[in-house]
Amino acid sequence: MSRVIKCGVIQTRNDVPTDQPIERIKEAAIAKNLALLEDAARQGVQVASLQEIFYGPYFCAEQDPRWYATAERIPDGPTLKLMQEFAARHRMVLIVPIVEEEMPGVYYNTAAVLDADGTFLGKYRKTHLPHCLPGFWEKFYFKPGNLGYPVFDTAYAKVGVYLCYDRHFPEGARILGLNGAEVVFIPSATTAGLSEYLWKLEQPAHAVANGYFVGTINRVGWEAPWNIGEFYGTSYFVDPRGKIVAEASRDRDELVVADLDLDMIAEVRHQWQFIRDRRPDVYEPIAKVGVG
User: Fold this and answer.
1) Is residue 182 annotated as a catalytic residue, yes or no?
2) How far are the Cα atoms of 65, 99, 174, 229, 266 from residue 103, in angstroms, in the given order?
3) Residue 118 within any structural domain of the chain
4) What is the residue-wise DSSP string for 27-71?
5) First-last CA distance in the chain
6) Is residue 53 part of a domain?
C-alpha cells in the first residue's frame, strides 16, 4: 500500500494597518488563517503549514522595539494553545511559525510543530538571519537559531522545517534529509525583485538533491507603510524529482493542497544515489573556508 498523505500550505496578506494595536493585528491574522485551516480540514488535509510570522506583517522591514510585543512563549503562549486545540480537533499536524520569546529580551524566529493530537513535538529556530538587504533587518529582532535541524516524527510523516532565508543555504537542507525528513516545509516572506528568480530554482533543487518533498509558502501583497516590495505568493509543493505538483496564485489568500506519495522518496533515491555517494571525509573545508 502506498503512503499518500494530503498536505496543505496557506498564504495570506496582512489586512490590518500596522499602526493599529498589535493584539488587533494578531487577532485578525489568526482568524483569517483559522478559516483557511477549517477549509483544509474539510478537504482532509493531514499536515499543514502557515507562513513565516503568520500572525501579522513582516515587521522586519523596520527596526522598532514595538514589535517585540508580538512574541510569545513556546509552547505556553496563547497562539500555540489555540493551534493545539485545532490540531487535536481535526487530527491535523500543524507547522506554526511565530516570534518566540525565550526570556525577556531574547527572541527567535521560530516554527512550532504540533502533532495530530495537539501534542507539541518541538520547534525549529531560524538559523540564517538576513541583515544585508533594505527591509530585512532580522538581526535587530532575533538571535540565530541554536537547535540544529530537527526532524519531527508526526502521525503521518517525518517533517522538517527551514525558514525563508535558510533556503539559500544547501547545508541545512542536506542535514534535514540525513536526519530523515520526508517533507520539508519552508515558510517564507520574500518580495519580488532581487531573489524572485531563485524561488523556483533553490527549493526544487533541495528536493532533488536530498530526495524529499518540499512545501514552501510565501505571503502576498504590499505591506504599508514600508512597501519594501510585493510579497508574491506562488506557494507550492515540489516532489523529489523537482516537479511542482501544486501551486498558488500570486496575489490572493489561498490554501494549496497536494497529495504526496511518500513511497516516491525510496524510488527516487534508488535511482539517484546522492545520499550513498556523499563524501563527508573530504568536505571539511566547508566548515572552515570563510570562517575567522
Assistant:
1) no
2) 15, 12, 31, 32, 42
3) yes
4) HHHHHHHHHHHHHHHHTT-SEEEPPTTTTS--GGGS--GGGGGG-
5) 52
6) yes
Q: At what angle do helices 202-210 and 170-178 cross, to 10 degrees?
A: 30
Q: One of 26, 32, 52, 123 is an active-site residue; which one? A: 52
Catalytic annotation, pick one of 26, 32, 123, 126: 126
Estimate the crossing angle of helix 22-42 against helix 78-90, to 10 degrees: 10
C-alpha cell at 238: 515540489
Domain that holds residue 140: 4-287
Q: How many domains does the chain have?
A: 1
| pLDDT tens-digit series, residues 173-215 | 999 999 999 999 999 999 998 889 999 999 999 999 999 999 9
Helix (H) / strand (E) containing 236:
strand 236-238
* Strand-pair category, 254-261 with 4-11: antiparallel
- Position 21: which residue type? P
Residue where the block lists cell 563524501: 279
- Does residue 59 register a pLDDT over 90? yes
**In residues, how long is the chain?**
292
Q: What is the CATH number of the domain that holds 61?
A: 3.60.110.10
Active site residue 52: yes
Q: What is the pLDDT of residues 130-169, one digit of tens each?
A: 997 788 999 999 999 999 999 999 999 999 999 999 999 9
The answer to whether residue 292 sits within a structural domain is no
| pTM greater than 0.85 | yes
Name the residue with cell 520574500: 190
Contact 106, 143 (CB under 8 A): yes
Considering the candidates 60, 72, 101, 164, report the single residue annotated as catalytic: 164
Among 132, 261, 135, 124, residue whose Cα is nearest residue 186: 124
